[in-house]
Structure formats: structure tokens, C-alpha cells
């Protein structure tokens, strides 16, 4: 949301909303998760969050991990590259269409697992 002070009302920003998640695996092959609360329910997720304007993926990952876990990390060279990504639910066509048409409206596409 953008606060439009001249008219005293909030309007939506239609710029893309990109997020990152950080996967940390220890020597025991355990994955680090963080606990969040929504209403009265708790759930576990990978640390991460929204990329801020002007931020790249790596700096967002460093910032979000620090905010959520107080861990300091540095990015080196990638150790793995994904050859194939499958989206669930299959929303790739809607994302491409929205990007090509200028993100005219906000629309919930469901949870995305990669």
C-alpha cells in the first residue's frame, strides 16, 4: 500500500512483489526454519521476505536472515543451480501475463511452492 497524502487515502502499488527464502543446512543435514504466528496459529517457514526497492536477491537474503534469526552471513559463489522449477499451483502463465500487461490489478494466485 502507498499512502497518498494529498488525498488522504491509501492506494495499491502495482510493482512486482518478489520474495526470497534462505535455506541453511547444518552438518546434521537439518534445515533451519523460523516460527511465525498469524492470529492464534503458529507455523514454520524458511527465513526470508520481500525484496525492498533497489535491493538485490543476495542483499535481501542477508538482511532477512539477520532480522529473523540474528545470524550474519556472506554470499560467496553459488554452490548449486536449479535446472528446472515447477510451480504449484501452476501460476507461471498468470505471472507472465501480468508482467506483460503492466500489473493492472492485484490478484491472489495461491501459495507458491518451488
Order of helices and strands: EEEEEEHH
Biggest β-sheet: count, sense, barrel? 2 strands, antiparallel
Look at the structure and give the mean pLDDT.
Answer: 74
**CATH topology call of the largest domain:** Nucleoside Triphosphate Pyrophosphohydrolase
Overall 3D shape: globular
How many β-strands, per DSSP? 6
Low-confidence parts lasting 5 or more residues at pLDDT below 50? 1-6
The end-to-end distance, rounded to whole angstroms, is 26 Å
Outline of this structure?
The chain has two helices and six strands. By secondary structure, the chain is an alpha+beta fold. The protein folds into two domains: 2-80, Nucleoside Triphosphate Pyrophosphohydrolase (Alpha-Beta Complex), CATH 3.90.79; 82-114, no CATH class.
Task: Describe what this molecule looks like in 3D.
With 114 residues, the protein is of the alpha+beta class. It has two domains: 2-80, Alpha-Beta Complex (Nucleoside Triphosphate Pyrophosphohydrolase); 82-114, no CATH class. It is 19% helix and 19% strand. It has helices at 57-69, 92-100; strands at 2-4, 9-11, 19-21, 34-38, 41-45, 48-50. The chain has a two-stranded antiparallel ribbon. The radius of gyration is 17 Å and the shape is globular. The protein starts with a strand and ends in a 14-residue tail after the last helix. Residues 1-6 have low confidence and may be disordered.
